[in-house]
Amino acid sequence: MSWFTNAMSSTLGKKVIMALTGLFLVIFLVVHLSGNLQLLLDDDGKAFNVYARFMTSNPLIKTTSFILYASFLIHIIWAVILTINNKKARPVGYAKTKPSANSTWSSRNMGFLGTIVFIFLVIHLKNFWYVMHWGPITSVNYDGQEYRNLFATVEAVFSQWWYVALYVVSMIGLMFHLYHGFSSAFQTLGLNHVKYNPAIKFVGVAFAIIVPAMFAAIPIIIFLKTL
Amino acid sequence: MKITLKVWRQKNAQDKGGLKTYQLDDVSPDMSFLEMFDVLNEQLVKKGEEPVHFDHDCREGICGMCSMYINGQPHGPKQTTTCQLHMRSFKDGDTIVVEPWRAQAFPVVKDLVVDRTSFDRIIQAGGYVSVNTGGIPDANEIPIPKKIADEAFDSATCIACGACVAACKNASAMLFVSAKVSQLALLPQGKVERKSRVENMVAQMDAEGFGACTNTGACSAECPKEISLENIARLNREYIKAKSSSDNI
Prior knowledge:
Chain B: One of its GO terms (molecular function) is electron transfer activity. The structure holds 2 protein chains of 2 kinds. In chain A, 75% of the residues lie in helices and 4% in strands. Chain A is mostly helical. The longest helix of chain A is centred in the first third of the chain and has 30 residues, at 59-88. Chain A is globular. Chain B is of the alpha+beta class. At the A-B interface, helix 2, helix 4 and helix 8 of A face helix 7, helix 8 and helix 9 of B.
């Protein structure tokens, strides 16, 4: 084994991989949210459809999207590997535990919270990402140019109450996942300093609340408009 | 005080074991938790039963030998060692569940006694400073800033009791290893071997079968010596630095 694979396969190395992919996914959330917010513009989806075309055709974005797919897969697979190893580290459990005495609920349930996000992700990809790439999808004409009308797809999906409910529940899951994950990633990378710890903690908590809340607000607003 | 104890009894490493209930009718609130166990064992010996085996040594909170998982917390409800936990922390009529540390790397020897030599092997892998023979260096020959000395000493207060492993949902030894790596990495004497030390100690930690760190902070919250999570960040930092820059290929 080379020194690199050796380092990365240790428990610390595996956690570094979780932290790096996790932080990359955090950046992705910001990009994704800024795109989604265009759904709320009062232009019948023009800005959003132009943006969706750009995101699926720009070579730089396309390359980055493969890094993104890889980050998702690695983050999920490594999480499963770590969870299995962690369970093996305590083959016989305690008869009585009192976990609330020493740790937060979200920190102990990252796997459960991640699973909620994962299930949502599969449904979400099928509804939008798959449809955008391979259809069926309607077209729309802006200034003589043909665009895929992803906005119409989004409107149709968000008009179903159960999908909006699923979306909101998943965002709550994401909220708790980020609540622990954001600052935890910095700790795993060794980035702990009295000067910056409060900032990391504050930004982490603010991010965990604001970003999922804004994501969840979009389907709610669109659903209310379709009523 | 009347206390009902549910104690883990296990004949040997192969035995399946189980909780057994005992009744103590005259417990003084001034007794330490271990003295309460002494009273229980006297009762058991009088009745001709096998006393409960448990680890203890100094009973002053400094040796790290006692190791009981009391009512869901290592060393019980107070942030101290079991020997320094007193019965006044409990109420008359309480039921207390006492279990051994649970970790694959800490196999149960008997009852509440677990084998913690995995910690010793981690120390043997690099938790020391190699000393060359020769004259004794002058005490103040190497200047060390007070702040650094204090930090190193805070890390060095770890008594290797294993409460961090017992508290962690992953049975991770990160807090212990990080304290031992930190105390030496901070000081000039320890800096000479800092890269090989962290590489070898982490490798041994993994070989012993401890879990990974999820940063729940349970270890530090339960640590009788209040070893801080800053040590774990330092361990991560030391490890990443060592792995990316040491000449150990």
